[in-house]
């Protein structure tokens, strides 16, 4: 059915528009959009005994990642530079990846035990496990490489 | 490498597929493509070159924490896929891919006589 190919396709139009929008949006590079959604986005799971938080923050060393806990506030801070392969700014034919530093404090649904916390970073994903406890003291977590 | 069908469509629901953010760096000697693919490692990465279409696919196993209930979901977890057009002056036999900390880097060296072309990889 070679005639099929000549029919107008809304999907093709939508894809074309999306590509144009993507190109338009990404043309200037992608510093973190401050004032919009907080970065990094996090997912939270909980049960009776504790809490798990995950965040996708690819391309960091564990040493560039700072996770700290104060009462029921968990703060994630870090940053990364632009692509190391960029010898010159004009080498960028396209720049969509974020490259600035970030800091975000997440209010946890309950206070956690600072002695029973565990943070790991693997494949660009931060996972923090926390256990419930009514009283809590500030504590800095060490981040292990995955 | 097994295809996506067997891993992410296990009879219940199809896993979402995301389009990774990329940087493309173009220099006279090579093109470097960098993509954010959190959750992907070497064993779950598929890079194919079919004629001039370069496809990157990364499979992500969504984390599941037994006994826990999701209470906040700010981002979706899924596979990554994106297709690029590669021009003829890239040396197809010398393409190298590495993944570290959820970042894919593809090195595409150019053939010696072709150092003048401006854009060698076009994002789609």
Summarize the structure.
Chain A has 146 residues and is mostly beta strands. Chain A is built from 1 helix and 10 strands. Chain B has one helix spanning 4-8; strands at residues 17-18, 22-26, 30-36, 45-50, 53-58, 69-73, 79-86, 96-100, 103-109, 121-123.
> What proportion of the residues of chain B is helical, as a percent range?
under 10%
Overall 3D form of chain B:
elongated
Helix content of chain A: 10-25%
Number of strands of chain B: 10
Largest sheet of chain A: 5 strands, mixed
Identify the CATH architecture of the domain at 38-85 and 98-136 in chain A: Sandwich
Notes on the protein architecture:
The complex is a heterodimer of chains A (146) and B (124). Chain A is built from one helix and ten strands, in the order αββββββββββ. Chain A is mainly β and 146 residues long. Chain A has a domain at 38-85 and 98-136: Immunoglobulin-like. A five-stranded mixed β-sheet of chain A has the order 1-2-8-7-10, with no helix packed on it. Chain A has a four-stranded antiparallel β-sheet with strand order 6-4-3-9, with no helix packed on it. In chain A, strand 3 and strand 4 form a beta hairpin. Residues 1-5 and 25-29 of chain A have low confidence and may be disordered. With 124 residues, chain B is mainly β. In chain B, strands 1, 4, 5, 7 and 10 form a five-stranded mixed β-sheet that branches. In chain B, a hairpin with a 2-residue loop joins strand 4 and strand 5 (53-58). Chain B is elongated and about 60 Å long. The chains are: A mainly beta (146), B mainly beta (124). The interface between A and B is large, with 42 and 39 residues. Strand 1 (42-46) of chain A pairs antiparallel with strand 6 of chain B.
């Amino acid at each position: 059915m070679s005639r099929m190919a000549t029919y107008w396709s809304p999907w093709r139009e939508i894809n074309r528009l999306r590509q144009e929008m993507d190109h338009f949006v990404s043309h200037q590079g992608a510093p973190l959009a401050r004032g919009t959604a907080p970065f990094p986005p996090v997912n939270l799971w909980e049960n009776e005994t504790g809490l798990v938080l995950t965040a996708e923050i690819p391309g960091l060393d564990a040493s560039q990642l700072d996770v700290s806990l104060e009462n029921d506030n968990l703060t994630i801070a870090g940053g990364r530079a632009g692509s190391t392969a960029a010898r010159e700014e004009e080498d960028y034919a396209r720049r969509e990846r974020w490259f600035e530093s970030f800091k975000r404090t997440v209010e946890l649904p309950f206070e956690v035990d600072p002695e029973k916390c565990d943070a790991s970073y693997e494949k660009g994903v931060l996972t923090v496990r926390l256990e419930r406890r009514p009283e809590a003291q500030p504590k800095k977590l060490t981040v292990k490489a995955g | 490498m097994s295809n996506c069908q067997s891993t992410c469509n296990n009879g219940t629901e199809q896993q979402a597929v995301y389009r990774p953010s990329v940087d493309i760096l173009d220099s006279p000697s090579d093109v470097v493509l960098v993509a954010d693919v959190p959750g992907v490692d070497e064993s779950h990465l598929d890079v194919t070159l079919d004629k001039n279409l370069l496809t990157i696919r990364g499979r992500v196993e969504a984390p599941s924490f037994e006994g826990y209930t999701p209470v906040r979901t700010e981002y979706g977890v899924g596979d990554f896929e994106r297709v690029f057009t590669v021009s003829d002056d890239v040396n197809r036999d010398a393409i190298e891919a590495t993944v570290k900390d959820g970042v894919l880097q593809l090195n595409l060296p150019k053939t010696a006589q072709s150092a003048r072309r401006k854009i060698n990889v076009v994002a789609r």
